[in-house]
Design brief:
The complex is a heterotrimer of chains A (341), B (320) and C (351). By secondary structure, chain A is α/β, with parallel strands linked by helices. Chain A is built from 13 helices and 10 strands. Chain A has a 6-stranded mixed β-sheet, sandwiched between helices. In chain A, helix 2 packs across helix 3. The longest helix of chain A has 31 residues. Helix content of chain B is 69%, strand content 1%. Chain B is an all-alpha fold and 320 residues long. Chain B has a two-stranded antiparallel ribbon with strand order 1-2. Chain B has 11 helices and 2 strands, in the order H-H-H-H-E-H-H-H-H-E-H-H-H. Chain C has one domain: Orthogonal Bundle (ABC transporter involved in vitamin B12 uptake, BtuC), CATH 1.10.3470. With 351 residues, chain C is mainly α. In chain C, strand 1 and strand 2 form a beta hairpin. The termini of chain C are close together. The radius of gyration of chain C is 21 Å and the shape is globular. Helices cover 69% and strands 1% of the residues of chain C. Classes of the chains: A alpha/beta (341), B mainly alpha (320), C mainly alpha (351). Chains B and C meet through helix 4, helix 9 and helix 11 of B and helix 5, helix 11 and helix 13 of C.
């Protein structure tokens, strides 16, 4: 069974084709590596999978469905509601002064009781005259603009990073992107955000759920930090950690999301032999937790040591795929790395 | 006046004002293009330019001559030399002392600094207006609007036609259009312009290629400021009144124009300026003047919802 | 953990503020220093509202004055007896906060996805729109006159009067304390964490499953609600909605100064900022002006002598110099200090 199925994916920026008709299947609970020379389109592929870039064409299916906001009945309802509100608002804006005069001002005698029935009556008779100009036209314009605007916004945010993240895809970045001014613990806690059940009112008023959840999440976060061996650094600001620790913290933050698929972008970059040995063990442990791992890596020792399968990209195209042995001896791969001899 | 004549008249007014807005908008868009900063003080720089122009008029004694007298054109020419130089240098100084140190800090820092500078400029305008010099109308409070003498006559160039296209309108086009062509040539065709575009695209790479980045940014401020200086001369002569808070209004209009056209794009700024100028003129005529500002901003919000990169702007891709 | 000084500042501020009227009673001559503090409380609330969006979330809002105006006018229309609503202080205030929240949501929905600078300009435009609308809708807002007189608040049958300032003082202080508490609670929670992560790195934050649009919208709406609360209280204190010109761009800038001078992203910093900026504006500047007037050092024909004519210069310079030399503010939150001085060595870790 495949957890991720990429079919015929193309990503183009202006005239530049970064990824060209790539198809790739990632089986569940395997460690798959993507290798290739610099500029081969590996990170672009990651960005497309995590919803940062929109594919120009092709499909990315995670767990059998595309990782984008589905068009549900609630979406349609929300769009309709926005349209309705926008229409009514425009009617109100266009008519506000005469409406106020006929319904409020002319029915109110200073400091006498105000009869709301008179006001609503006046308002409805105001709209009964010249219904088209006063009500129908502004309502239609407002509703159309509101509907179109809401739809445009929805369309543009269909494939957003948070959608992919909430579906269960976690990632790290090539150039570490931690929240530098937050502590290591807070970074991990942020990774857990999508699993939290407290809402803003629980938090603002410190309702019981807040306390219960806080204790639980901190305990879980500490567990994750212990798993990557960073529990002693929990209270340090992320930017004060050493490079290797930052790499591990980024993995911990991604693990906190409880992902099904973890994308690692050059996790061993800048590591020495001992450190990359440790990293390989960590990646194995992650897989043993039932998480599929997809990684981009240049360290051939790491790649060959842990991958179940390897895909090779060059100039945005997939030129080879298979187990480490097969890829190692594939002439196309050798050519891509060493050039034609 | 017939309906079509009214429309034509508003078209002329709108285009003239639009050209002035476009000149200011160019300054915004150039600076934004190169360091991604909304130079909030730009509108107030324009205002200070007007006061500088008024001072030049006062020192030359031009306000005593009749409009259109022979000395006027040379006076105008002199103003077009001095005021842009003044505004350009001021803008360069602003970059040197308020923004340059903040290049590598958070994005908010230079913007806040620019807002602060706009207040400083506004205050200078207030005080400048209080300088007891004859042309400023002695005894008036510093804050009240000042009359700018009518240097260019209001003669209708279309003869007896009901539609007015005056010498003033002509002046606006004669000054602004060649300037825009010149600017386009400068940015596209010259070495300095190329350096500017390189810095705008990737500051680090430009520095590695040996481009003196800070100097190029300084030049951009200089040119943007000079454009605002030209705009302030043209606008003062065209509208005949200046006051110390006019920079805010002009700045907001011009920035709206720059965003409208796609900030960072030079043709976009001109297009945006014209659109805003026309929209204002048409709204004044066909709706109500008091709702013009509301309309302009509503249009801005709608543009940003449907086309966040503006009309001619390119959509920026974040590097990951 | 943060140094105790920072944890304690906002509570000690509130405590000292609570004691001031009592101390005055004992002092000879019963000076009314506390009277001058009320605008400071109002502006501190405005600053807190702005701080949510600008300090925590890192999005610049240049239109907080408009939300204050919405609050003041809503409150005025709901309470003034020239309109049929005639609500009491408490229900009107509650409704005003709801209206502010809704207006914030309505403005935020289409605009919140914009990049920082664009958002700044849209909020600025919103400020202009609100000012113009209030001026133009003559029959509803009474144009440039403003809506007045407004009835005084009452509390369990006790009616506030203009002559005794202490009840007002404690009313505003109470509201401020509640806001401080709410803001602290939000900051130290998943909500504050998500806000700060958006400020730090929006893309990484969204890759962690945080929906930046939703969180920014929340910040926008909550900030707007706080600003409109400040507006409602201000209107009740003035006994009038004020005129539209009272809520112009300069008020938004003063609020920004408060947040920046005090320390972005820090509740205590905002209180300190309000104290410094408003204290300067309404106490120092006024005292100097009165002193100069008394000694006839100000002439009406010379603009340079009136201290009020230098006010904007001072605010502007304050902003520029703060950004240059102390961008984290006088009383920074722990995060911002580190962000503002990236090359300085950090304090040793407290493991």
């Amino acid at each position: 069974m495949n957890i991720l199925e990429i079919s015929d994916l193309t990503v183009r920026f202006g005239g530049l084709t970064a990824v060209n008709a790539v198809s790739l299947d990632i089986p569940v609970k395997e460690i798959v590596s993507i290798i290739g020379p610099n500029g081969a389109g590996k990170t672009t592929l990651f960005n497309a999978i995590t919803g940062i870039y929109d594919p120009t064409s092709g499909r990315i299916c995670f767990n059998g469905e595309e990782a984008r906001r589905p068009f549900r009945r609630t979406t349609a309802l929300a769009l309709a509601l926005v349209g309705l509100i926008a229409g009514l608002s425009l009617v109100l804006i266009v008519n506000v002064e005469p409406l106020w005069d006929t319904s409020i001002t002319s029915n109110y005698v200073y400091q006498q009781t105000f009869l709301w029935s008179n006001a609503t009556h006046a308002a409805s008779s105001y709209f009964r005259e010249e219904t088209g100009r006063r009500f129908a036209i502004p309502f239609l314009i407002g509703a159309l603009v509101g509907l179109a605007g809401a739809f445009a916004i929805w369309q543009r945010t269909r494939r957003a990073p948070e959608v992919a993240a909430r579906a269960g895809i976690a990632r790290t970045f090539q150039n570490i992107r931690l929240f530098n001014q937050m502590t290591a613990l807070d970074n991990v806690l942020l990774g857990m955000d999508s699993q939290l059940r407290t809402r803003v009112w629980h938090v603002a008023l410190r309702l019981p759920l807040y306390w219960r959840e806080r204790d639980n999440t901190v305990r879980q976060a500490m567990d994750i930090l212990r798993f990557v061996d960073l529990d002693r650094e929990a209270q340090q600001l992320a930017e004060n950690l050493s490079y290797g620790h930052q790499r591990r913290l980024e993995i911990a933050r991604a693990l906190a999301m409880q992902p099904r698929l973890l994308l690692l972008d050059e996790p061993a970059a800048g590591m020495n032999l001992a450190e990359s040995q440790e990293l390989m063990k960590l990646i194995h442990d992650i897989r043993d937790r039932g998480i599929t791992v997809l990684l981009i890596e240049h360290h051939m020792q790491v790649v060959m040591g842990i991958s179940d399968r390897i895909a090779v990209l060059d100039h945005g195209e997939k030129i080879a795929e298979g187990n480490p042995e097969a890829v190692r001896s594939n002439p196309k791969v050798i050519e891509a790395y060493l050039g034609k001899s | 006046m017939s309906g079509s004549e009214i429309f034509l008249q508003q078209l002329i007014i709108g285009l003239s004002n639009g050209m002035i807005i476009a000149l200011i908008a160019l300054g915004y868009t150039m600076v934004y293009g190169i360091i991604e900063l909304i130079n909030f003080a730009h509108g107030d720089l324009f205002m200070l330019g007007s006061f500088a122009a008024l001072t030049v008029v006062g020192l030359l004694g031009l306000d005593h001559l009749a409009a259109g007298a022979p000395g006027m054109w040379s006076g105008l020419f002199l103003m077009l030399l001095i005021v842009p130089l003044f505004c350009g240098s001021l803008n360069w100084l602003a970059d040197r002392f308020a923004y340059r140190h903040l290049r590598d800090s958070t994005k908010l820092a230079p913007l806040v600094s620019a807002i602060g500078l706009s207040f400083v400029f506004m205050n200078i305008g207030l005080l400048w207006g209080g300088v007891p010099m004859n042309v400023f109308g002695l005894g008036r409070s510093a804050a009240s609007p000042k009359d700018f003498p009518a240097l260019v006559s209001n003669v209708n160039l279309l003869g007896q036609s009901a539609v007015e296209f005056t010498t003033k309108d002509l002046m606006v086009f004669v000054i602004t259009l060649p300037l825009m062509v010149l600017l386009t040539w400068f940015v596209k065709g010259t070495r300095a312009g190329k350096a500017m575009r390189a810095v705008a695209q990737d500051r680090v790479a430009a520095r590695l290629m040996g481009i003196p980045v800070d100097r190029v940014i300084g030049q951009t401020f200089l040119i943007g400021g000079a454009l605002a200086g030209v705009a302030s001369v043209v606008s003062s002569v065209y509208n005949n009144t200046i006051y110390f808070q006019m920079g805010y209004r002009a700045g907001v209009d011009a920035f709206t124009a720059a965003v409208f056209g796609g900030i960072g794009s030079l043709p976009g700024a001109v297009l945006g300026g014209l659109v805003i100028g026309l929209a204002r003129a048409m709204c004044d005529q066909y709706l109500e003047t008091r709702w013009t500002n509301v309309l302009v901003f509503t249009v801005l919000i709608l543009v940003l919802v449907f086309r966040p990169q503006g009309l001619l702007g390119a959509r920026a891709k974040e590097k990951v | 953990m943060a140094a105790p000084r920072r944890i304690l500042f906002h509570w000690s501020f509130l405590l000292v503020a609570a004691l001031i009227p009592l101390i005055e009673l004992v002092l000879p001559g019963h000076p009314h220093v506390g009277d001058l503090l009320r605008p400071i409380f109002i502006m501190a609330m405005l600053g807190l509202g702005l701080n949510i969006l600008t300090g925590f979330t890192g999005q610049l809002n240049l239109g907080v004055a408009a939300f204050m105006a919405v609050g003041a006018y809503t409150y005025a229309i709901l309470t003034c007896d020239i309109y049929p609503f005639r609500l009491g202080f408490w229900s009107a205030t509650a409704l005003t906060v709801l209206v502010g929240l809704t207006v914030g949501l309505f403005l935020g929905l289409p605009t919140i996805r914009l990049r920082g600078d664009y958002l700044a300009i849209v909020t600025l435009g919103f400020g202009e729109i609100v000012e113009d609308v209030l001026k133009n809708l003559d029959s509803i807002t009474k144009g440039t006159q403003g809506i007045n007189p407004l009835p005084s608040p009452s509390w369990f049958g006790y009616h506030f009067r203009a002559e005794t300032y202490q009840p007002w003082y404690y009313l505003f202080l109470g509201f401020l304390a509640v806001l401080v508490l709410l803001n602290r609670n939000l900051q130290r929670s998943r909500v504050g964490r998500a806000w700060i992560s958006i400020r730090e790195d929006e893309l990484a934050s969204s890759c962690m499953g945080v929906n930046p649009m939703k969180m920014k919208l929340l910040a926008f709406a909550l900030g707007a609600a706080q600003c409109s609360l400040a507006g409602a209280l201000w209107a009740s204190y003035l006994g009038s909605s004020g005129e539209p010109g009272n809520y112009d761009f300069q008020v938004s800038i003063i609020a920004l100064c408060i947040v920046i001078v005090g320390g972005m992203g820090n509740v205590g910093g905002v209180l300190l900022g309000a104290l410094v900026i408003m204290g300067f504006n309404s106490i120092v500047l006024e005292t100097v002006t009165n002193f100069l007037k008394a000694h006839q050092l100000i002439s009406s024909s010379n603009v340079f002598t009136a201290p009020g004519n230098w006010k904007y210069m001072l605010y502007g310079l304050a902003l520029i110099l703060m950004m240059r030399f102390r961008p984290e503010g006088l009383l920074p939150s722990r995060q911002f200090k580190a962000e503002a001085h990236p090359d300085e060595p950090h304090s040793p870790p407290t493991a």
